Model the fold of this input.
Amino acid sequence: MENRSSSEAFNSSQKVVTRFAPSPTGFLHIGGARTALFNWLLARHYKGKFLLRIEDTDRARSTQEAVDAIFNGLKWLGLDWDEDPVFQFSRAQHHVDLAKNLVDQGKAYYCYCTPEELEAMREDAKQRGVSPKYNGMWRDRDPKTAPAGINPVIRLKAPLDGETTLHDIVQGTVIVANSQLDDMILVRSDGTPTFMLSVVVDDHDMGVTHVVRGDDHLTNTFRQIQIYNAFGWDTPKYGHIPLIHGPDGAKLSKRHGALGVEAYRDMGFLPEAVCNCLLRLGWSHGNDEIISMQQAIEWFTTDNLGKSASRLDFQKMEKLNSYYIKNADNKRLLGIIMKFQKQISDEKQQRLLLGMNGLKQRAKTTIELNDMASIYTEDYTPSVPADKAILSILKDIYDALRELSDWTEENLDHCLHVLAANKELSFGKIAQPLRAVLSGRKITPGIFEMLFAFGKDESLKRLNIALGS
RNA sequence: GUCCCCUUCGUCUAGUGGUUUAGGACAUCGCCCUCUCACGGCGACAACAGGGAUUCGAAUUCCCUAGGGGACGCCA
Done:
C-alpha cells in the first residue's frame, strides 16, 4: 500500500503549490531546469501555483548575476512563476526567531563545540565504522558551563531512537533509523540560519504543498521532517527525482552538459526542444516523444516519473530541435537569424522569408539555420566557369528563364525540366551548375525554391555574370 | 566507512504476473524518394546485471550478490 503514492498525493481539494528554489551561486543548469520544469508542469496541470524562491543565505557565494541568469533562463524556457520571488536571506531573522522559540520549548539547544572538536568527533566515528555525526555533547549540558568567548550554534534536539518515515511520491516509502541522524545545526554561530531550517520555514510559510527536487536531497528530507515535527507542522508531499548524469554516466560536470540554459540557446537550441528533451528525461507518457508544452501540462503527473538516473543525449536533443525548427513560424526564425547577423536589408529579409521553408528543414540548430541563411543574405558574385559545356548549359538556362513570365516554383520546375528533356540531359546536369551560380555552394535548398526566393532579376543577374557578360 | 536510492537495446524509455517471438524514439547500417544536402518512407541491428526463491506461469513479487549513484558541512 505504501508504494508509489502517485496521484493519491493530489486527490485532496487542497490547491497545489509547488516551488523552484535554486541557490544563486551559478547559472541555471540543465538539472535545475528540469526540476523547475517538473514543478511548473505540476502546478499548471493542477491549476495551482508555481513559486520561485532564491536561496541566497550563503552570502559569500550568492551573486546578482546568478539571480539574473536564473530569471532569464526560466523566462527563456517559458517557465513563468506566480507571485514575486522570495529571497530567502530577507527572511533570516524570522528563521532565527523561530529557532529560538524551539530552544525555549526545549526542542533545540545551544552547542558550544568548536570546529576542531567536531572534526575529531567525525574522525572518531569513522574509525569506529559508524555514521559520522555530532555526538550530542551539549544536548543536555547546562549552558552555564559554556566556555567563555564562544558563540554557540543552535542545534535541533532530534529524536535519539525510533525511525523517520518518508512517503515519497517517486521513491516510495523510505525509512531511516533516527540513530543515523544527528542534532543538525539550525542557526550558525554567526547568527544566520542554515539551509535546513530556512527551507522548512519558507516552504511552510509559502504554503508549498508539493516539493519535487533532485534525489541528492533525499537524505536531507529526513532531517527536514524532524524540523517540521519540532514545529508541529505538516510536511509537504515530497518527490525525489534521480539526477541527470553526463554522457559517461558520472555526475554532470561543466565539460558535458552542466551548462547554463543560455548556453543551449547559444548552441542553437530552441527552448521548446530543450523542454521536450528534459521532459523525457525521467518522465514518459507511453511511447510519445514529441510533446508540446500544452500537451505536457495536460499529461504531466508524478505517476510516470522514473526512479533511475538518466543521461543527457545531445543527438536526441538535436533531433528534437530539428523537428521544432522545421515546424517553427518563419517570421520567428527570421527574428532568430537577425540576432546572429548584424543587418539584413528589407529585400534580403524578404528573400529569407521566401526561402525559409527550404532552410528550416535542413537545420538541426539555429546556428546551422543561420549558416545556410547566408545563401540569401550574402552578395555572392559567381565566377565564369572554365568548362565550355557548362557554360553552354548556363546559356541555355539563361535563355529559358528569361522567357519565363510567371516566376513561380511550379513554372520554374516545368521550364527547367523541359529544357533538360530537350537537351537530353539528366536534370542534375542542369541543377548542379545552376546551384553553383546562384549560391556558390554544392549543398543548398532545392533549386526552384532558390530561384523563386532570389526572384527573376537577381537570378538572371547572377547567371549573366557567370556567362561573362 | 555508515546510511539511502537505482539497474530493460549504445542512449532515453514502454512494460505494474499470462495479450510479449520484450514495443517506441535517438544513434548506427541498408534500401526507397531525389536537382545536391537534408526531410520523409521502409527495413535491419540491438536489452530485461547475475544468482536463488514464490508461482501452473516473472522484465514484472521477495531475498542475496555485483555494479552505478547520492548523502553523511556552522554549502545549498
